[in-house]
């Protein structure tokens, strides 16, 4: 009897690891077998598909959310499969996926529109007809308008004048409070400026709700697509529908106003409403709403996050802050003590520009760009199957010590020399490089100028842990004391 029980337990203990191994490799074997049957001796990029259905999504979330070591997700693949491939196979967010994570591989994907199109995991959240999802002539026309509206020198001159009064007032209010959560305050002023630029909305209870809905929408962009009550993705979809309703109501109100006054709003939404294609056809309401939502997501959350990180790193880098303060005080004095700067002043602010670039390199606001293989694609001896999503993992470039010395150290002076070709892709690359990249730099520069000439601050929790989803930020939101700069 005892011998029989011992044999049973031995069999059970031996079977459990075998069952685990079978479960772990089942998805990878399935995809490799299906690929072999279709493609013969061709090879998928190295990697592993993770467990059935979930793939490596839980592993990614563990590295980003719980271990707080996001770079080890890619680092583990480089260690296991070698760095030379430049691409790895995996299974993320419900789909078999290829990850590109070297300068050469990223360039190949981003600059090959004939091979790769755009495909967000859930396109409806950013809008099926928005500039970030459409292709061809429609993309070219929308992108051209956006560049003219928010990224041209003429537009940036106007924006620089418009946003500064609100920035100056916000900073004074922070000093009156004495203690602030920087992430919250910076989001508030950045959102107010974006609302004014894009849709001419002044702060109100409605814009506070819109801000909340956008926050939930952004959280859903990198969540697992499980659509049932209580999930992040379900909440994101609900908030997207609320945003749709608000902006459609705004469109109708504008049309009634235009009929009554014969005047149209001169903002980004108004520009979208007036846009026409070669046949004189205007954008539909869905197209206008989709593009406004996608622009606010891109122009608000990312800019606010970058400014937050600037205050964080400068608080921990007194030498860099001293250099920044010296340059900006000199700029203010050269303008006769005027605190406002113009777009034409910015090229003279050399050290400030280095702080801007170092901030957005380290912030890694958008750690990946989403693409999809339009056809079967060969790269470096490997085959990317048609229809597979491709993640261009730009974060790995900016945190790689082969590309940047001591990459996790804030060092604006590293920008005395340009980055190695292909290693700096904070705004993506190719024909889809972020259309608002200069607007983001402008807003960051303006905030740095007014912070440095008038205020000083200290972190309450300088060793606070970092949360990396949906965007990187210290878990305390960069709580700090904030006061007017003591005059000598």
TrEMBL record:
Which UniProt keyword terms apply here?
A: Heme, Iron, Membrane, Metal-binding, Monooxygenase, Oxidoreductase, Transmembrane, Transmembrane helix
Which SUPFAM superfamilies does the UniProt record give? Cytochrome P450 (SSF48264)
Bilayer-crossing regions: 6-31
Pfam short name (any one)? p450
Q: Which cofactor does it need?
A: heme
* PROSITE patterns in alphabetical order: CYTOCHROME_P450 (PS00086)
Where along this sequence does the record place binding of heme? 434
MF terms (GO), sorted A to Z: heme binding; iron ion binding; monooxygenase activity; oxidoreductase activity, acting on paired donors, with incorporation or reduction of molecular oxygen
Q: What is one GO biological process annotated to this record?
A: sterol metabolic process
Q: Which InterPro entries match?
A: Cyt_P450 (IPR001128), Cyt_P450_CS (IPR017972), Cyt_P450_E_grp-I (IPR002401), Cyt_P450_sf (IPR036396)
Pathway, per Swiss-Prot/TrEMBL? Hormone biosynthesis; Plant hormone biosynthesis
Q: Which family does it belong to?
A: Belongs to the cytochrome P450 family.
Which PANTHER family did the record assign? CYTOCHROME P450 26 (PTHR24286), CYTOCHROME P450 FAMILY PROTEIN, EXPRESSED (PTHR24286:SF12)
Q: What is this protein called?
A: Ent-kaurenoic acid oxidase
Q: Which organism is it from?
A: Lolium multiflorum (Italian ryegrass)
Instruction: Tell me the lineage of the source organism.
Output: Eukaryota, Viridiplantae, Streptophyta, Embryophyta, Tracheophyta
């Amino acid at each position: 009897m005892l011998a029989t029980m011992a044999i049973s337990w031995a069999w059970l203990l031996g079977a459990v690891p075998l069952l685990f191994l079978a479960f772990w490799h089942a998805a990878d074997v399935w995809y490799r077998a299906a690929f072999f049957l279709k493609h013969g001796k061709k090879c998928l990029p190295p990697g592993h598909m993770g467990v059935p259905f979930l793939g490596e999504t839980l592993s990614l979330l563990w590295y980003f959310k719980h271990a707080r070591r996001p770079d080890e997700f890619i680092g583990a693949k480089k260690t296991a499969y070698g760095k030379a491939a430049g691409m790895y196979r995996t299974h993320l967010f419900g789909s078999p996926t290829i990850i590109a994570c070297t300068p050469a591989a990223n360039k190949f994907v981003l600059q090959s529109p004939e091979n790769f199109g755009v495909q967000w995991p859930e396109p409806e959240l950013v809008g099926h007809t928005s500039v970030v999802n459409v292709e061809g002539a429609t993309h070219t026309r929308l992108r051209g308008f956006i560049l003219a509206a928010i990224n041209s020198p003429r537009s940036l001159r106007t924006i620089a004048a418009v946003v500064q009064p609100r920035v100056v007032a916000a900073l004074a209010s922070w000093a009156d409070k004495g203690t602030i959560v920087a992430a919250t305050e910076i989001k508030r002023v950045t959102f107010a400026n974006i609302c004014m630029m894009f849709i001419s909305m002044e702060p109100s209870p409605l814009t506070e709700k819109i801000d909340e809905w956008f926050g939930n929408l952004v959280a859903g962009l990198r969540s697992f697509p499980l659509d049932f009550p209580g999930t992040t993705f379900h909440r994101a979809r609900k908030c997207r529908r609320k945003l749709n309703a608000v902006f459609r109501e705004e469109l109708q109100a504008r049309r009634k106003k235009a009929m009554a006054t014969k005047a149209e709003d001169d903002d980004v939404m108004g520009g979208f409403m007036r846009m026409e294609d070669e046949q004189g056809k205007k954008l539909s309401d869905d197209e206008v709403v989709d593009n406004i939502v996608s622009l606010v997501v891109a122009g608000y959350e990312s800019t606010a996050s970058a400014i937050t990180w600037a205050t964080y790193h400068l608080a921990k880098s007194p030498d860099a802050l001293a250099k920044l303060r010296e340059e900006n005080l000199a700029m203010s004095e050269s303008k006769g003590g005027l605190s406002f700067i113009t777009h034409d002043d910015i090229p003279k602010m050399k050290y400030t520009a280095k702080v801007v670039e170092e901030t957005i390199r380290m912030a890694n606001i958008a750690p990946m760009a989403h693409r999809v293989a339009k056809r079967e694609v060969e790269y470096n001896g490997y085959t990317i199957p048609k229809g597979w999503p491709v993640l261009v993992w730009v974060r790995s470039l900016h945190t790689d010590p082969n590309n940047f010395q001591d990459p996790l150290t804030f060092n604006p002076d590293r920008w005395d020399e340009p980055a190695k070709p292909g290693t700096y892709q904070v705004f993506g690359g190719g024909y889809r490089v972020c259309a608002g990249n200069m607007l983001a730099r402008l807003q960051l520069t303006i905030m740095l100028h007014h912070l440095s000439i008038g205020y000083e601050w200290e972190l309450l929790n300088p060793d606070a842990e970092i949360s990396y989803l949906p965007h990187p930020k210290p878990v305390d939101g960069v709580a700090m004391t904030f006061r007017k700069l003591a005059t000598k």
